[in-house]
Amino acid sequence: MWRRQAASSGVLYSVNHLHNSLRAAVIRDTIMFAEYLDKAMRHAQIEQIEDGSYFGSIPGFQGVWSNAADEEASRQELREVLEGWILLQIADHTPPPTMQSFG
Hints:
- By secondary structure, the protein is of the alpha+beta class.
- Helices cover 47% and strands 17% of the residues.
- It has helices spanning 15-41, 71-91, and strands spanning 3-5, 12-14, 45-48, 54-57, 65-68.
- A three-stranded antiparallel β-sheet has the order 3-4-5, covered by helices on one side. A two-stranded antiparallel ribbon has the order 1-2.
- The longest helix is centred in the first third of the chain and has 27 residues, at 15-41.
- The protein is elongated and about 60 Å long.
């Protein structure tokens, strides 16, 4: 509700408008991130290994893997690892694989 008009430029801006714009951007980015994770997870490969646990990986995501007692736990862990891996890629200014690269 706070408003201020810059006398020299006649520019009117609103903190609420800025706040709403930022909120919309965060929501949009959150949805895009979730869609990216979902699409990547459709390519997850989970298999039972010799010791009876389940190993998961996603082709194209080097270093992203999971190992858990059951398939669902392995899938959930894999998604969490993928999320962290992507955030590290972004923090390092390294683009993660494009959605087109995994179908």
